[in-house]
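Progress report, Aim 2. The chain analyzed during this reporting quarter is listed below.
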Amino acid sequence: MTTDAARDADPAAAPRPGQELAPLTLPVTRTLIVSGALASRDYQDVHHDAEAAREKGSPDIFMNILTTNGLVGRYVTDHFGPRSVLRKVAIRLGAPNHPGDTMVLRGTITAVDGATAQVRIVGTNRLGDHVTGTVTVELPAAGR
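Predicted structure tokens for the chain:
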């Protein structure tokens, strides 16, 4: 799936503080939640068994932090290009992502220091902020 961020990225343009990344809208499906948990070897029942999740107080299964972390990383590298390198991803989860939700990731460049940029990330769903955090990315040579 091609994202708005990938289409809008201009590799020749130098990133600057205050620059906003194009938002990325992601449908949160049961398949995404379960496959992300399996891919990250997170076999906790709340990520694949709706009945177990309800018994533990959740209305349904919910996305694990490792899947969210991967989606945040994808969002940033889609913007800066395949030669960018994630150097640090520091995120915090808030409202859970359940099947049927839509998560919208947004980012703002907060600092540029030579070959690296820092991006403030917020991912929201119908309940509020699902993820907030900061990503430090090493820029490809064309973006410097």
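Confidence is low (pLDDT under 50) at residues 1-8. The two ends are 27 Å apart (CA to CA). These observations will guide the mutagenesis work planned for the next reporting period.
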